[in-house]
Write a structure and sequence with these properties.
Oligomer: single chain
Order of helices and strands: HEHHEEEHHEHEEHH
Helix content: 55-70%
Structural class: alpha+beta
Radius of gyration: 41 Å
Shape: elongated
Number of strands: 7
Largest sheet: 5 strands, antiparallel
Number of helices: 8
């Protein structure tokens, strides 16, 4: 089957001059992961979380600042009756170092929260990667399935063409009626309609796959894998401990617990140390001094300063009308809500995982049933065809046998496709989807 539809597609592509992409499932998943916008956003969030972690780490380190300024004041301020202060062109400059000594645990808590934020962003990236891989795999198998149906209809068409030729020859020699010829012709027309439907479906599936893997929608794609040889269930039930959504929910509880400490830190003492070097100058003070003879002599004094300064600051919250208590209590309620949400989500994810695993296992049983039905339909069709050719069966019997073969074949294709999709859904539900 795979060889047939690849050959058909290549012939069409040669006729249109298009260049086909032969892609395996792994290649499609890789292309989707490298071109999907949500993946790029998730990767940017990881980068942001790494930056946030680095920013939080700087809270432990001293801060260096350079400050300076100049100002011009006119008219001169007057102090007393005779003293003027000239402040035109006064300047000030300095270098300071500020080191937090104790912040109520806020810096430590902030670093822990930044670390958790980084882990959450990585879990989100993994969840996004699995979603993209799941969409790519499902799109790939849907496309393979509809191509398989086209092959099946083509095989059915060959059978009908053979019957039509036989019936037409029999009519020409008077061994059958024109009604039988028309009946076969009607079935052929119906099958051509189904073939066109399948071809339209294949085109839609191809365009959907192109969108997922990030190529132009008119790109021809030839899948290199088929639904032949689908094996039995390869995976046991894993549980949901590896699922990124569960890990994110657990980290959310940890963050809420740190929020309690952060709320408490706002109402604990703060201690800081600051040292620096400052310069101040070009302030002039004009005044008069009395000489021994009693006369007044004016003089001007320039004020400049260069030196080091150090300070220790302590802030102790005393009374804030119960604000701290209420904030801490509110944060503790958030912890309880996060824990309840974690328990609820765990149960829902566990239920989903068990359901998808059941579908995964049952899907293979459906393949076995459909395969058996197809074998029986094929045997029945072969027997009725032989008997029809010797006149022991009617045309109605033959057409019904062919229709049953077509239905059984379609059921087998659908069963195999659904099994592949069930496998993807199961692996996604337990956080084990690798796309390989």
């Amino acid at each position: 089957m795979k060889t047939k539809h690849i050959a058909l597609l290549l012939c069409l592509l040669c006729a249109t001059g298009a260049l086909a992409m032969e892609l395996s499932l792994r290649e499609c998943v890789d292309m989707a992961l490298h071109t999907d916008e949500e993946m790029a956003i998730a990767q940017n969030r990881v980068a942001q979380a790494n930056l946030d972690k680095g920013i939080a780490l700087t809270g432990y380190l001293p801060k260096f600042d350079i400050n300076g300024g100049a100002f011009y004041l006119t008219p001169n301020p007057t102090m007393g009756a005779a003293m003027d202060i000239q402040m035109r062109g006064v300047y000030m400059a300095g270098i300071s170092l500020t080191q937090p000594v104790y912040t109520g645990g806020k810096i430590v808590t902030g670093n822990k929260m930044a670390k958790i934020g980084k882990e959450v962003s990585e879990y989100q990236l993994e969840a996004t990667r699995m979603d993209v891989a799941a969409e790519a795999e499902k799109s790939y198998w849907m496309y393979v399935a509809v191509l398989s149906k086209i092959d099946m209809i083509a095989a059915y068409m060959v059978q009908l063409d053979s019957i039509y030729s036989y019936t037409r020859s029999a009519y020409e020699v008077g061994l059958t009626t024109e009604l039988n010829v028309n009946r076969v012709e009607s079935r052929r027309s119906e099958l051509q309609y189904r073939l066109r439907q399948a071809q339209s479906g294949a085109e839609l599936c191809r365009m959907a796959l192109c969108r997922v893997i990030g190529v132009a929608e008119d790109t021809p794609i030839v899948p290199t894998e088929s639904l032949d040889g689908v094996g039995g269930p390869e995976y046991r039930y894993f549980g949901i401990d590896a699922r990124p959504e569960l890990l994110m929910a657990q980290k959310n509880v940890d963050v809420k617990k740190l929020d309690v400490k952060m709320a408490l830190s706002d109402f604990l003492p703060l201690v800081g140390l600051q040292i620096g070097w400052n310069a101040f100058g070009n302030m002039k003070m004009t005044n008069y001094t009395q000489l021994p003879d009693g006369s007044m002599y004016p003089f001007t004094q320039t004020i400049d300063y260069r030196g080091f300064v150090g300070a220790v600051s302590v802030s102790i919250p005393v009374f804030h009308w119960g604000e701290g208590y209420k904030k801490v209590k509110r944060a503790k309620i958030e912890v309880e809500n996060a824990s309840l949400s974690l328990d609820r989500n765990r149960k829902l994810m566990e239920l989903q995982a068990r359901q998808t695993y059941s579908n995964y296992v049952d899907g293979y049983d459906l393949i076995a049933t459909a395969s058996k039905a197809l074998d029986e339909a094929q045997e029945n069709l072969t027997a009725i065809t032989e008997q029809y050719q010797v006149g022991l069966m009617t045309l109605t019997d033959l057409l019904e046998a062919q229709a049953q073969w077509h239905t059984s074949f379609a059921n087998l294709i659908e069963a195999k496709t659904q099994y592949k999709i069930n496998e993807v859904d199961y692996l996604r539900s337990v956080g084990m989807l690798t796309g390989e």
